Amino acid sequence: MATAMATTRAAYPTDVSIITTYRCQMQCKMCDIWENPSDSKREIQAKELEMLPNFKFVNITGGEPFVRRDLEDIVEVMYQKSPRIVISTSGWHTDRIVKMAERFPNIGIRVSIEGLSQKNDDLRGRDGSFDRAMRLLLTLKEMGIKDIGYGCTVSNKNSEDMLWLYKLSRELGMEFATASFHNSYYFHKDDNAITNKEEVINNFRKLMEELLKDKSPKSWYRAFFNLGLINYIREQPRMLPCEAGTANFFIEPYGDVYPCNGLEDRYWKESMGNIRNVRSFDELWFSEQANKVRDLVRTCPKNCWMVGILSIQQLGLLKIKLNR
Amino acid sequence: MGKPICIDHVPHFDVGQDPLQGNLRQSELSGQTINFKKREPEIVLSEVELADMLRTD
User: Fold this and answer.
1) Which of A253, A234, A245, A238 is nearest to A306 (CA)?
2) In A170-196, which positions are buried (b, 16+ CB within 10 angstroms) versus exposed (e)?
3) What is the average pLDDT across A272-294?
4) Does A92 reach chain B within 8 Å, measured CB to CB?
5) Which of A256, B27, B29, B30 falls 20 to 30 Å from A124 in CA-CA distance?
6) Mind telling me how many Å the CA of B11 is from chain A's nearest CA?
């Protein structure tokens, strides 16, 4: 089946995440990227991104993207390719982020917050980081920036705070996203494992109950996503197929294209190609190597729960099964 | 709506995914314990670079 699918020409991706740097000033307990920085002189430049196709959605991430002084150049190039750009940040560099929002008022900003102040600062390894994040979000809100919010990576230590962060987001009128910590080459971690499963699952259940009370379908979808996180913590197979490397992909700081950032050498880790080694994006995206990586994704053993996409055909199949 | 949520039984729907996808099977892959190899950092930032990253202006 996998081989047959690989012979079909892949569709163009709709989403991209650009890992602008592996440098980061935070020292998070669940991520060792800060100990493994990229070389700033070799990081991809805005001009190199001009070869990318158009997207529905662009995520700019790091490391900490705002350590790059040329981030506005990257955003400028990517706005020619996508109507929506969201930058993931620690929220540390307040002035630079505000300046970015002044220049690009439609920009999306998502700040990582791992708990209320004490818990956040402990997990992120920098005193005052919660205060900075809050000051930033409130300043952006005051400026009229609409696409703002924060996200929490749930680990053994902060699942209760996740519920308070959700309540805070409701009061502030901001987006709130969740993820579960996991291992990956990207985080340079292999010991991110939830050991107090019942406690964490119970807190996710409480969050789902709150989300399902909301009138917005987006919150219902988020409840389903959190059910997927419970499923992930229980180490069950994914609830939906992973389309990493097909609908979306990552570009790392030296130009390599990966289907996702959750790869681990102990399972498999292979690049689809490097944008610096091709004349056009098509040459990379439709290459034999890219198809090989898509085949690896189809049988990837990792049950991480970051992206799940249903095609129209799959959606129809799911509907039939649910109606039985 | 109004029903208590049930998380004890998460249904699995076959919506076209390969049965091997998302199914952790470390022992099946290699037949042996998989060890994590911590890579040595390629780059070590200087004190000046670290201080620059912490600057907020």
Assistant:
1) A238
2) eebebbbebbbbbbbbbbbbbebebee
3) 98
4) yes
5) A256
6) 8
